[in-house]
Design brief:
The protein is an alpha+beta fold and 207 residues long. Helix content is 38%, strand content 22%. It contains 5 helices and 8 strands. The strands form 2 sheets. The protein has a 5-stranded antiparallel sheet. The protein has a 3-stranded antiparallel sheet with strand order 1-7-8, covered by helices on one side. β4 and β5 (107-113) form a beta hairpin. α3 runs antiparallel to α4 (148-162) and α4 (148-162) crosses α5 (188-206). The longest helix has 22 residues, at 36-57.
């Protein structure tokens, strides 16, 4: 699963226009931190990779294979005629990605990529301005035996503790990627009780 903060820099901004999490394929999503324009370029390339693989092999692309392909692209900047012919970059991509998906063979997968083209596999991870605090909470409370509902509650609490603004269904977005449903956006009506629980727990602990 992936959860992101929509940071609203002005009350005039339409929240739905701020995209921080993207569907890459039916079995795979991505959350971003950094330059949105660079992220869109990589997401578009990722979607093409996934569709080409489905067309050629009639199966979904493995999450790690896609991650490796994107990191190869990230390392090909400044190569002139070499590198990936679909993208011409004179500088590194200024974005980190969290790629989450479900593999038929390996099950749930989560990978973090950085602008250097390095990627690492995680059970749980966070990126962005509040990543240090979020990772500390995940390290303490995450368990591999968690149910999806428990994971939703934990991630909501992590954002409630680390976001500068008060958590709401306007500045908070969550998606799940499961074997049964694939990529699915969690609706605002489902977020409301999760947010209320996280805020109540935080208030009780600070009392």
């Amino acid at each position: 699963m992936l959860a992101v903060e929509r940071r609203l820099t002005s009350p005039l901004v339409e929240p739905a226009s701020i995209e921080k999490v993207f569907e890459v394929d039916r079995h795979l999503g991505a959350a971003i931190s950094g330059l949105v324009s660079d992220a869109r370029t990589l997401i578009d390339l990722a979607r093409v990779e996934c569709q080409n693989h489905r067309f050629t092999y009639d199966e979904p692309l493995r999450v790690e294979s896609l991650t490796q392909a994107l990191c190869d692209i990230a390392m090909s900047f400044g190569e002139g005629g070499g590198g990936d012919k679909r993208v011409k970059m004179s500088r590194p991509f200024g974005v980190s990605l969290l790629l989450a998906g479900y593999d038929a063979r390996k099950g749930p997968q989560l990978f973090h990529t950085d602008p250097s083209g390095t990627y690492v596999s995680y059970d749980a991870h966070a990126i962005g301005s509040g990543a240090e605090g979020a990772v500390a909470v995940l390290r303490e409370k995450y368990s591999k035996t968690m149910t999806l509902e428990q994971a939703k509650a934990l991630v909501t609490r992590v954002l409630a503790d680390t976001m500068e603004e008060k958590l709401s269904d306007v500045n908070f977005e969550m998606v799940t990627v499961t074997k049964a449903e694939g990529y699915r956006l969690v609706k605002a009506a489902e977020l409301a009780p999760l947010i209320a629980r996280a805020m109540a727990e935080a208030a009780a602990e600070s009392a």
